[in-house]
Protein backbone atom coordinates (compact mmCIF):
# COMPACT_ATOMS: atom_id res chain seq x y z
CA UNK A 1 0.00 0.00 0.00
CA UNK A 2 1.17 3.53 -0.83
CA UNK A 3 -0.03 6.58 1.09
CA UNK A 4 -0.31 9.32 -1.54
CA UNK A 5 -1.41 12.06 0.90
CA UNK A 6 -3.78 13.29 -1.81
CA UNK A 7 -7.43 14.33 -1.46
CA UNK A 8 -8.05 14.30 -5.21
CA UNK A 9 -8.56 10.79 -6.55
CA UNK A 10 -7.14 11.62 -9.98
CA UNK A 11 -3.95 12.93 -8.38
CA UNK A 12 -3.73 9.78 -6.27
CA UNK A 13 -4.09 7.54 -9.33
CA UNK A 14 -1.50 9.61 -11.18
CA UNK A 15 0.98 9.13 -8.35
CA UNK A 16 0.19 5.41 -8.26
CA UNK A 17 0.85 5.07 -11.98
CA UNK A 18 4.18 6.87 -11.62
CA UNK A 19 5.19 4.55 -8.80
CA UNK A 20 4.04 1.51 -10.80
CA UNK A 21 6.04 2.61 -13.83
CA UNK A 22 9.21 3.17 -11.79
CA UNK A 23 8.98 -0.28 -10.17
CA UNK A 24 8.16 -2.13 -13.40
CA UNK A 25 11.06 -0.47 -15.23
CA UNK A 26 13.57 -1.35 -12.53
CA UNK A 27 12.42 -4.91 -11.82
CA UNK A 28 11.70 -6.54 -15.17
CA UNK A 29 10.68 -9.87 -13.64
CA UNK A 30 8.12 -8.12 -11.44
CA UNK A 31 5.04 -6.34 -12.69
CA UNK A 32 2.71 -4.54 -10.31
CA UNK A 33 -0.68 -2.98 -10.93
CA UNK A 34 -3.12 -0.75 -9.04
CA UNK A 35 -5.77 -2.93 -7.39
CA UNK A 36 -7.69 -0.46 -5.26
CA UNK A 37 -7.83 3.20 -4.34
CA UNK A 38 -8.84 3.70 -0.71
CA UNK A 39 -10.12 7.05 0.49
CA UNK A 40 -9.83 6.03 4.15
CA UNK A 41 -8.26 3.01 5.77
CA UNK A 42 -8.41 1.39 9.21
CA UNK A 43 -5.42 -0.98 9.23
CA UNK A 44 -5.13 -3.41 12.15
CA UNK A 45 -2.52 -5.81 10.81
CA UNK A 46 -1.45 -7.51 7.62
CA UNK A 47 -4.55 -8.62 5.69
CA UNK A 48 -6.78 -7.23 8.44
CA UNK A 49 -8.32 -3.92 7.51
CA UNK A 50 -11.46 -1.98 6.68
CA UNK A 51 -11.42 0.71 4.02
CA UNK A 52 -13.56 2.99 1.88
CA UNK A 53 -12.81 1.76 -1.63
CA UNK A 54 -13.31 4.11 -4.58
CA UNK A 55 -14.92 2.39 -7.58
CA UNK A 56 -15.57 4.02 -10.95
CA UNK A 57 -19.08 3.35 -12.30
CA UNK A 58 -20.03 4.97 -15.62
CA UNK A 59 -17.41 7.66 -15.15
CA UNK A 60 -18.53 8.46 -11.60
CA UNK A 61 -16.46 7.52 -8.56
CA UNK A 62 -18.50 5.85 -5.82
CA UNK A 63 -17.56 4.75 -2.32
CA UNK A 64 -17.82 1.13 -1.18
CA UNK A 65 -16.91 -0.39 2.17
CA UNK A 66 -14.34 -3.19 1.93
CA UNK A 67 -13.48 -5.41 4.90
CA UNK A 68 -10.74 -8.04 5.05
CA UNK A 69 -9.87 -10.40 7.90
CA UNK A 70 -11.85 -8.66 10.67
CA UNK A 71 -14.16 -10.38 13.16
CA UNK A 72 -17.28 -9.44 11.22
CA UNK A 73 -16.17 -11.82 8.46
CA UNK A 74 -16.14 -14.82 10.80
CA UNK A 75 -19.32 -16.89 11.01
CA UNK A 76 -18.97 -17.64 14.74
CA UNK A 77 -20.20 -14.08 15.31
CA UNK A 78 -23.94 -13.53 15.11
CA UNK A 79 -25.58 -11.13 12.66
CA UNK A 80 -26.23 -8.61 15.42
CA UNK A 81 -22.50 -8.48 16.19
CA UNK A 82 -21.69 -8.03 12.51
CA UNK A 83 -24.28 -5.27 12.12
CA UNK A 84 -22.80 -3.48 15.13
CA UNK A 85 -19.27 -3.73 13.71
CA UNK A 86 -20.50 -2.40 10.36
CA UNK A 87 -22.19 0.56 12.03
CA UNK A 88 -19.05 1.37 14.01
CA UNK A 89 -16.91 1.15 10.87
CA UNK A 90 -19.22 3.67 9.22
CA UNK A 91 -18.54 6.02 12.13
CA UNK A 92 -14.77 5.38 12.12
CA UNK A 93 -14.38 5.86 8.37
CA UNK A 94 -16.76 8.80 8.06
CA UNK A 95 -13.99 11.40 8.24
CA UNK A 96 -15.75 13.21 11.09
CA UNK A 97 -13.94 14.81 14.02
CA UNK A 98 -12.47 12.07 16.31
CA UNK A 99 -14.33 13.36 19.37
CA UNK A 100 -17.62 13.26 17.48
CA UNK A 101 -16.89 9.73 16.25
CA UNK A 102 -16.19 8.50 19.79
CA UNK A 103 -19.43 10.10 21.01
CA UNK A 104 -21.37 8.43 18.18
CA UNK A 105 -19.88 5.04 19.07
CA UNK A 106 -20.74 5.40 22.75
CA UNK A 107 -24.29 6.55 22.00
CA UNK A 108 -24.83 3.68 19.56
CA UNK A 109 -23.63 1.09 22.09
CA UNK A 110 -25.89 2.49 24.81
CA UNK A 111 -28.89 2.37 22.47
CA UNK A 112 -27.98 -1.16 21.36
CA UNK A 113 -27.69 -2.47 24.93
CA UNK A 114 -31.04 -0.92 25.85
CA UNK A 115 -32.65 -2.44 22.77
CA UNK A 116 -31.21 -5.88 23.53
CA UNK A 117 -32.31 -5.83 27.17
CA UNK A 118 -35.83 -4.82 26.16
CA UNK A 119 -35.84 -7.84 23.80
CA UNK A 120 -36.56 -5.64 20.78
CA UNK A 121 -34.00 -7.46 18.61
CA UNK A 122 -35.36 -10.38 16.52
CA UNK A 123 -34.17 -13.75 17.82
CA UNK A 124 -32.70 -14.84 14.47
CA UNK A 125 -30.07 -12.08 14.73
CA UNK A 126 -28.54 -13.94 17.70
CA UNK A 127 -27.82 -17.04 15.59
CA UNK A 128 -24.24 -18.33 15.82
CA UNK A 129 -22.88 -20.66 13.13
CA UNK A 130 -20.12 -23.14 13.96
CA UNK A 131 -18.83 -26.01 11.83
CA UNK A 132 -18.08 -29.33 13.51
CA UNK A 133 -14.52 -30.50 12.99
CA UNK A 134 -15.37 -34.11 13.79
CA UNK A 135 -18.25 -36.30 14.93
CA UNK A 136 -20.02 -34.85 18.00
CA UNK A 137 -19.25 -37.84 20.25
CA UNK A 138 -15.52 -37.61 19.50
CA UNK A 139 -15.05 -34.30 21.32
CA UNK A 140 -13.33 -34.83 24.72
CA UNK A 141 -14.39 -31.41 26.09
CA UNK A 142 -17.91 -31.34 24.65
CA UNK A 143 -19.36 -29.97 27.89
CA UNK A 144 -18.01 -26.47 27.23
CA UNK A 145 -18.71 -26.32 23.49
CA UNK A 146 -22.18 -24.99 22.53
CA UNK A 147 -22.06 -26.30 18.97
CA UNK A 148 -21.27 -29.84 20.17
CA UNK A 149 -24.02 -29.73 22.78
CA UNK A 150 -26.53 -28.71 20.12
CA UNK A 151 -25.31 -31.55 17.89
CA UNK A 152 -25.66 -34.08 20.73
CA UNK A 153 -29.21 -32.87 21.43
CA UNK A 154 -30.09 -33.32 17.75
CA UNK A 155 -28.59 -36.83 17.77
CA UNK A 156 -30.67 -37.67 20.83
CA UNK A 157 -33.76 -36.68 18.84
CA UNK A 158 -32.77 -39.03 16.04
CA UNK A 159 -31.57 -36.39 13.60
CA UNK A 160 -28.39 -37.14 11.61
CA UNK A 161 -25.34 -35.02 12.47
CA UNK A 162 -21.84 -35.66 11.16
CA UNK A 163 -18.46 -33.98 10.87
CA UNK A 164 -18.31 -30.79 8.76
CA UNK A 165 -21.97 -30.00 9.48
CA UNK A 166 -22.67 -26.39 10.43
CA UNK A 167 -24.60 -25.93 13.67
CA UNK A 168 -26.92 -22.91 13.90
CA UNK A 169 -27.81 -22.12 17.51
CA UNK A 170 -28.69 -19.42 20.04
CA UNK A 171 -27.47 -19.16 23.65
CA UNK A 172 -30.56 -18.78 25.84
CA UNK A 173 -31.36 -18.38 29.53
CA UNK A 174 -28.61 -17.15 31.86
CA UNK A 175 -25.09 -18.58 31.79
CA UNK A 176 -23.63 -16.26 34.50
CA UNK A 177 -20.27 -16.26 32.73
CA UNK A 178 -19.87 -20.05 32.87
CA UNK A 179 -18.76 -21.76 29.66
CA UNK A 180 -20.48 -25.00 30.73
CA UNK A 181 -23.80 -23.24 31.41
CA UNK A 182 -23.59 -21.38 28.10
CA UNK A 183 -23.01 -24.67 26.28
CA UNK A 184 -25.94 -26.37 28.04
CA UNK A 185 -28.16 -23.38 27.26
CA UNK A 186 -27.41 -23.56 23.53
CA UNK A 187 -30.47 -24.43 21.44
CA UNK A 188 -30.90 -24.95 17.71
CA UNK A 189 -32.33 -21.91 15.96
CA UNK A 190 -35.42 -23.88 14.91
CA UNK A 191 -36.27 -24.52 18.55
CA UNK A 192 -35.82 -20.86 19.48
CA UNK A 193 -38.00 -19.62 16.63
CA UNK A 194 -40.73 -22.17 17.33
CA UNK A 195 -44.00 -20.67 18.54
CA UNK A 196 -44.42 -20.65 22.34
CA UNK A 197 -40.89 -22.02 22.82
CA UNK A 198 -40.29 -19.70 25.77
CA UNK A 199 -36.58 -19.50 24.88
CA UNK A 200 -35.06 -16.04 25.29
CA UNK A 201 -31.50 -15.12 24.21
CA UNK A 202 -28.93 -14.70 27.00
CA UNK A 203 -28.34 -10.95 26.66
CA UNK A 204 -25.37 -10.79 29.04
CA UNK A 205 -23.63 -13.60 27.18
CA UNK A 206 -24.03 -11.85 23.83
CA UNK A 207 -22.88 -8.51 25.22
CA UNK A 208 -19.80 -10.10 26.81
CA UNK A 209 -18.85 -12.57 24.08
CA UNK A 210 -20.37 -11.35 20.82
CA UNK A 211 -20.59 -7.56 21.00
CA UNK A 212 -17.77 -6.24 23.20
CA UNK A 213 -14.74 -8.23 21.88
CA UNK A 214 -15.04 -7.19 18.19
CA UNK A 215 -16.03 -3.64 19.19
CA UNK A 216 -13.00 -3.37 21.47
CA UNK A 217 -10.67 -4.58 18.72
CA UNK A 218 -12.13 -2.10 16.22
CA UNK A 219 -11.78 0.81 18.63
CA UNK A 220 -8.35 -0.18 20.00
CA UNK A 221 -6.40 2.30 17.79
CA UNK A 222 -8.83 5.14 18.55
CA UNK A 223 -7.94 7.64 21.28
CA UNK A 224 -10.69 8.83 23.58
CA UNK A 225 -12.13 5.43 24.47
CA UNK A 226 -11.03 2.11 25.95
CA UNK A 227 -12.46 -1.27 26.84
CA UNK A 228 -13.70 -0.10 30.25
CA UNK A 229 -15.62 2.81 28.70
CA UNK A 230 -17.07 0.54 26.01
CA UNK A 231 -18.15 -1.97 28.66
CA UNK A 232 -19.81 0.81 30.64
CA UNK A 233 -21.77 1.91 27.57
CA UNK A 234 -23.04 -1.66 27.22
CA UNK A 235 -24.06 -1.74 30.87
CA UNK A 236 -21.45 -4.36 31.83
CA UNK A 237 -19.40 -4.64 35.00
CA UNK A 238 -16.35 -2.49 34.25
CA UNK A 239 -14.27 -4.13 37.02
CA UNK A 240 -13.86 -7.15 34.74
CA UNK A 241 -12.26 -5.06 32.03
CA UNK A 242 -9.06 -3.54 33.31
CA UNK A 243 -7.40 -1.03 31.00
CA UNK A 244 -4.02 -2.54 30.26
CA UNK A 245 -1.57 -2.58 27.42
CA UNK A 246 -1.77 -6.33 26.98
CA UNK A 247 -3.25 -6.26 23.52
CA UNK A 248 -0.94 -3.43 22.50
CA UNK A 249 2.33 -4.89 23.69
CA UNK A 250 1.80 -8.48 22.60
CA UNK A 251 4.71 -9.38 20.38
CA UNK A 252 3.08 -10.59 17.20
CA UNK A 253 4.70 -10.83 13.82
CA UNK A 254 1.63 -9.56 11.96
CA UNK A 255 1.39 -6.23 13.80
CA UNK A 256 2.32 -3.14 11.80
CA UNK A 257 3.70 -0.37 13.99
CA UNK A 258 5.47 2.94 13.52
CA UNK A 259 8.98 3.55 14.82
CA UNK A 260 8.77 4.92 18.35
CA UNK A 261 10.87 7.95 17.41
CA UNK A 262 8.26 8.91 14.81
CA UNK A 263 5.29 8.76 17.19
CA UNK A 264 4.13 12.10 18.69
CA UNK A 265 4.57 12.38 22.45
CA UNK A 266 0.85 12.74 23.15
CA UNK A 267 0.30 9.32 21.54
CA UNK A 268 3.48 7.59 22.71
CA UNK A 269 2.97 8.55 26.34
CA UNK A 270 -0.84 8.43 26.54
CA UNK A 271 -0.71 5.28 28.72
CA UNK A 272 1.94 6.74 31.04
CA UNK A 273 1.02 7.67 34.59
CA UNK A 274 1.27 11.33 35.52
CA UNK A 275 3.81 12.36 38.17
CA UNK A 276 1.91 12.69 41.45
CA UNK A 277 3.55 14.79 44.18
CA UNK A 278 2.63 15.25 47.84
CA UNK A 279 2.62 18.77 49.26
CA UNK A 280 4.34 18.80 52.66
CA UNK A 281 2.27 21.80 53.68
CA UNK A 282 -1.38 20.79 53.18
CA UNK A 283 -0.56 17.03 52.83
CA UNK A 284 -2.60 16.82 49.64
CA UNK A 285 -1.51 15.57 46.24
CA UNK A 286 -1.07 17.41 42.97
CA UNK A 287 0.37 16.54 39.56
CA UNK A 288 3.17 17.93 37.46
CA UNK A 289 2.86 17.35 33.72
CA UNK A 290 5.72 19.38 32.32
CA UNK A 291 6.28 22.92 31.14
CA UNK A 292 3.75 22.73 28.31
CA UNK A 293 0.95 22.22 30.86
CA UNK A 294 1.84 25.54 32.46
CA UNK A 295 0.86 27.30 29.26
CA UNK A 296 -2.70 28.60 28.71
CA UNK A 297 -3.30 26.21 25.83
CA UNK A 298 -2.75 23.19 28.03
CA UNK A 299 -5.00 20.16 28.02
CA UNK A 300 -8.53 21.34 28.88
CA UNK A 301 -8.93 18.25 31.07
CA UNK A 302 -5.90 19.19 33.13
CA UNK A 303 -8.10 20.70 35.81
CA UNK A 304 -10.02 17.44 36.29
CA UNK A 305 -8.84 15.13 39.07
CA UNK A 306 -5.64 16.15 40.85
CA UNK A 307 -4.70 19.82 40.29
CA UNK A 308 -1.59 20.71 38.29
CA UNK A 309 1.43 22.01 40.19
CA UNK A 310 2.28 25.68 39.72
CA UNK A 311 5.71 26.68 38.43
CA UNK A 312 7.36 29.60 40.24
CA UNK A 313 10.79 31.19 40.15
CA UNK A 314 11.71 29.04 43.17
CA UNK A 315 10.56 25.72 41.76
CA UNK A 316 7.27 23.84 41.96
CA UNK A 317 4.59 25.04 44.36
CA UNK A 318 1.32 23.62 45.63
CA UNK A 319 -1.46 24.97 43.38
CA UNK A 320 -4.06 25.23 46.17
CA UNK A 321 -5.15 28.60 47.45
CA UNK A 322 -4.08 29.14 51.04
CA UNK A 323 -1.07 26.82 50.76
CA UNK A 324 1.26 27.61 47.85
CA UNK A 325 4.13 25.87 49.67
CA UNK A 326 7.30 25.53 47.61
CA UNK A 327 8.67 22.04 47.02
CA UNK A 328 12.39 21.69 47.64
CA UNK A 329 14.73 20.02 45.18
CA UNK A 330 15.51 17.16 47.58
CA UNK A 331 11.81 16.52 48.27
CA UNK A 332 11.03 16.52 44.55
CA UNK A 333 13.89 14.11 43.79
CA UNK A 334 12.89 11.70 46.56
CA UNK A 335 9.24 11.58 45.50
CA UNK A 336 10.26 11.18 41.86
CA UNK A 337 12.56 8.27 42.68
CA UNK A 338 9.87 6.63 44.82
CA UNK A 339 7.49 6.67 41.85
CA UNK A 340 10.17 5.25 39.55
CA UNK A 341 10.82 2.41 41.99
CA UNK A 342 7.10 1.69 42.16
CA UNK A 343 6.96 1.35 38.37
CA UNK A 344 10.07 -0.84 38.41
CA UNK A 345 8.53 -3.09 41.08
CA UNK A 346 5.37 -3.39 39.02
CA UNK A 347 7.44 -4.49 36.03
CA UNK A 348 9.27 -7.16 38.06
CA UNK A 349 5.96 -8.53 39.37
CA UNK A 350 5.70 -9.98 35.84
CA UNK A 351 1.94 -10.38 35.65
CA UNK A 352 0.50 -11.82 32.44
CA UNK A 353 -2.98 -10.89 31.20
CA UNK A 354 -5.15 -12.25 28.41
CA UNK A 355 -5.63 -9.91 25.44
CA UNK A 356 -9.26 -11.02 25.10
CA UNK A 357 -11.33 -8.48 27.09
CA UNK A 358 -14.07 -11.04 27.59
CA UNK A 359 -11.65 -13.32 29.46
CA UNK A 360 -9.46 -11.02 31.57
CA UNK A 361 -7.30 -13.82 33.03
CA UNK A 362 -4.42 -12.41 35.11
CA UNK A 363 -1.61 -14.63 36.38
CA UNK A 364 2.12 -14.76 37.09
CA UNK A 365 2.54 -18.28 35.74
CA UNK A 366 3.38 -19.01 32.11
CA UNK A 367 1.82 -22.27 30.96
CA UNK A 368 3.44 -25.03 28.94
CA UNK A 369 1.34 -23.78 26.01
CA UNK A 370 3.51 -20.65 25.80
CA UNK A 371 1.46 -17.53 25.17
CA UNK A 372 -1.84 -19.38 24.84
CA UNK A 373 -4.41 -18.41 27.48
CA UNK A 374 -5.61 -21.30 29.63
CA UNK A 375 -8.91 -19.60 30.41
CA UNK A 376 -10.43 -18.69 33.78
CA UNK A 377 -10.28 -22.29 35.05
CA UNK A 378 -6.83 -23.13 33.68
CA UNK A 379 -8.16 -25.91 31.47
CA UNK A 380 -7.19 -24.37 28.10
CA UNK A 381 -10.85 -24.12 27.12
CA UNK A 382 -13.27 -21.25 26.77
CA UNK A 383 -10.71 -18.72 25.53
CA UNK A 384 -8.55 -18.39 22.43
CA UNK A 385 -6.69 -15.27 23.55
CA UNK A 386 -2.96 -14.74 23.96
CA UNK A 387 -1.12 -13.91 27.15
CA UNK A 388 1.03 -10.78 27.24
CA UNK A 389 2.88 -8.84 29.90
CA UNK A 390 0.60 -6.51 31.83
CA UNK A 391 3.52 -4.08 32.21
CA UNK A 392 6.14 -4.65 29.53
CA UNK A 393 9.72 -3.49 29.08
CA UNK A 394 8.45 -1.01 26.52
CA UNK A 395 5.85 0.33 28.94
CA UNK A 396 8.45 0.87 31.68
CA UNK A 397 10.90 2.48 29.27
CA UNK A 398 8.26 4.88 27.93
CA UNK A 399 7.28 5.77 31.50
CA UNK A 400 10.90 6.66 32.27
CA UNK A 401 11.17 8.72 29.08
CA UNK A 402 7.97 10.53 30.00
CA UNK A 403 9.25 11.37 33.49
CA UNK A 404 12.56 12.59 32.11
CA UNK A 405 10.74 14.78 29.59
CA UNK A 406 8.87 16.52 32.41
CA UNK A 407 12.14 18.03 33.63
CA UNK A 408 13.91 18.48 30.28
CA UNK A 409 13.91 22.26 30.01
CA UNK A 410 15.23 22.34 26.44
CA UNK A 411 12.54 19.93 25.25
CA UNK A 412 9.89 21.92 27.07
CA UNK A 413 11.04 25.19 25.54
CA UNK A 414 11.00 23.58 22.10
CA UNK A 415 7.35 22.61 22.58
CA UNK A 416 6.56 26.09 23.83
CA UNK A 417 8.12 27.54 20.69
CA UNK A 418 5.67 25.76 18.38
CA UNK A 419 2.76 27.73 16.86
CA UNK A 420 0.25 28.74 19.50
CA UNK A 421 -3.48 28.29 19.46
CA UNK A 422 -5.45 31.32 18.29
CA UNK A 423 -6.39 33.64 21.16
CA UNK A 424 -3.53 32.65 23.50
CA UNK A 425 -1.65 35.55 25.05
CA UNK A 426 1.98 35.62 23.97
CA UNK A 427 3.10 37.17 27.27
CA UNK A 428 1.84 34.13 29.20
CA UNK A 429 3.93 31.86 27.02
CA UNK A 430 6.99 34.08 27.47
CA UNK A 431 6.46 34.03 31.24
CA UNK A 432 6.65 30.23 31.29
CA UNK A 433 9.85 30.34 29.21
CA UNK A 434 11.46 32.71 31.72
CA UNK A 435 10.42 30.52 34.66
CA UNK A 436 11.80 27.45 32.88
CA UNK A 437 15.18 29.12 32.53
CA UNK A 438 15.20 30.07 36.22
CA UNK A 439 14.46 26.45 37.20
CA UNK A 440 16.93 24.82 34.82
CA UNK A 441 19.34 23.83 37.60
CA UNK A 442 16.58 22.47 39.88
CA UNK A 443 15.00 20.51 37.07
CA UNK A 444 18.43 19.24 36.04
CA UNK A 445 18.78 17.45 39.38
CA UNK A 446 15.42 15.70 38.91
CA UNK A 447 16.27 14.85 35.31
CA UNK A 448 19.52 13.19 36.41
CA UNK A 449 17.53 10.96 38.77
CA UNK A 450 15.50 9.59 35.86
CA UNK A 451 18.53 9.35 33.56
CA UNK A 452 20.24 7.15 36.14
CA UNK A 453 17.49 4.55 35.70
CA UNK A 454 17.37 4.99 31.92
CA UNK A 455 21.09 4.28 31.69
CA UNK A 456 20.51 0.96 33.47
CA UNK A 457 17.68 -0.01 31.12
CA UNK A 458 18.69 -2.25 28.23
CA UNK A 459 15.51 -1.57 26.24
CA UNK A 460 16.88 1.49 24.44
CA UNK A 461 20.16 -0.12 23.39
CA UNK A 462 21.24 -2.69 20.83
CA UNK A 463 24.04 -4.95 22.04
CA UNK A 464 26.45 -5.15 19.13
CA UNK A 465 28.61 -7.53 21.17
CA UNK A 466 25.69 -9.90 21.51
CA UNK A 467 24.96 -9.77 17.78
CA UNK A 468 28.45 -9.88 16.31
CA UNK A 469 30.64 -11.07 19.18
CA UNK A 470 31.05 -14.44 17.49
CA UNK A 471 33.04 -12.77 14.70
CA UNK A 472 35.79 -11.77 17.15
CA UNK A 473 36.32 -15.27 18.46
CA UNK A 474 39.02 -17.41 16.98
UniProtKB/TrEMBL annotation:
Keywords per UniProt: DNA replication, DNA-binding, DNA-directed DNA polymerase, Metal-binding, Nucleotidyltransferase, Nucleus, Transferase, Zinc, Zinc-finger
Ubl conjugation recorded as keyword: no
GO molecular function, one term: chromatin binding
Source species, domain of life: Eukaryota
Residues of the Zinc finger DNA-directed DNA polymerase family B alpha domain: 261-468
Biological processes annotated in GO: lagging strand elongation; leading strand elongation; mitotic DNA replication initiation
Coiled coil: none
Record Pfam families: DNA_pol_B (PF00136), zf-DNA_Pol (PF08996)
InterPro entries: DNA-dir_DNA_pol_B_multi_dom, DNA/RNA_pol_sf, DNA_pol_B_thumb, DNA_pol_palm_dom_sf, Pol_alpha_znc_sf, Znf_DNA-dir_DNA_pol_B_alpha
GO cellular component: alpha DNA polymerase:primase complex
Subcellular location, principal: nucleus
Compartment annotation: Nucleus
Domain DNA-directed DNA polymerase family B multifunctional: 1-222
Gene3D superfamilies: DNA Polymerase alpha, zinc finger, DNA polymerase family B, C-terminal domain, Palm domain of DNA polymerase
EC number(s) recorded for this UniProt protein: 2.7.7.7
Keyword Ligase among record annotations: no
Main EC class the enzyme belongs to: transferase
Recorded family membership: Belongs to the DNA polymerase type-B family.
Alphabetical list of PANTHER family matching this protein: DNA POLYMERASE ALPHA CATALYTIC SUBUNIT
Protein name: DNA-directed DNA polymerase
Organism of provenance: Friedmanniomyces endolithicus
Amino acid sequence: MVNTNQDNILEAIKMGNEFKKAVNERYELLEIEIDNVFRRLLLHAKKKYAAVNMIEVDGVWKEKMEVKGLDMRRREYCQLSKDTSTELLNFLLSGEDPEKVVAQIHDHLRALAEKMRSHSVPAFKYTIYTQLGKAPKEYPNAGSMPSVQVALKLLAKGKPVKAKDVMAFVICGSSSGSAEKAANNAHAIDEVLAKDSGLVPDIDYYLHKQILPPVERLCAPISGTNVAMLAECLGLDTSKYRVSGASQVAERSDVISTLESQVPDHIRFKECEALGLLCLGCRRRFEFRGLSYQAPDADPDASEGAPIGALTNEGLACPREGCRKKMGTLTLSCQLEAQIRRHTSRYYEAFLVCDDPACGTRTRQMSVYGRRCLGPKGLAIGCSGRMAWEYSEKGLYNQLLYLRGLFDVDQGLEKMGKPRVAGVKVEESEKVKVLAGMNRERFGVAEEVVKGYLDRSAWGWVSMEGLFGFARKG
